[in-house]
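**Sequence with structure:**
===
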Amino acid sequence: MSNITKETRKESFEKIQLKRKSKLIYEQLGSGEYTARELAIKMYNTTDKDGNRLLRTAERQETAPRLTELVEYELVEVVGKKFDSISNCKVAVYKRKGDFKDAKNNLQAELDRLLSENILTQEQFDAINKEEVQKFLDGSLAKRITASPLIMREERFTVNIKAGMLDSTLEGNPADTRVVMQGAVDLIFKEDNELVVVDYKTDRVRDISRLKELYAKQLNLYKLAVEEFTDYKVKECIIYSIHLNDYIAVDC
């Protein structure tokens, strides 16, 4: 792999794979709301599979700088302040940004927030079918996503792959030629220490299996790309039909 490709891969995944501690902090936030000290205490009292504490101490300095970093990356937000008896002052309360549970519990409020923060344009806001979105949020796939400790949305990637993976008609040296592939995956979430790739489709089909026929190759390429830039194994690829409000797994 060239130095350029390595650097691009690093940049593509740096939002989540910032540093080991940042990643742990993001995962431990889950769907809760914590001050830096509360999160440090929680992580200090939590052990990994080898029985080691996630943090060396329960001091707020263990988490505060990383939380600030995650806020800068727009992965975490400050949702208020509360009194901290040790420092004798009010401190910030943090939560993961754009949590699925927020949307499920109060879709209108979450959409209003996205509009007010210019994440959605007025035109996009007006075009949203709230009933269909709510059906998705109440479904089994959203339940799996909500339970995940790690969720990545619209994750952009740049990877170096063999041309034959893009064009099956190529043979010999042309098929082995390395080419750059760029794209964006709608959603990736972690489940059982592996990743699940989700691609949303708006095609107005009658049978969801038709989407599998049309996009299986695309999902397989997404799998290769995600495994390349994250170093995680992809265990499942899913196509979600917005029109049918249903999803289907693709062999990948």
Summary: Residues 2 and 160 are 9 Å apart (CA to CA). The radius of gyration is 20 Å. The chain has a mean pLDDT of 85. The first helix runs from residue 3 to 13.
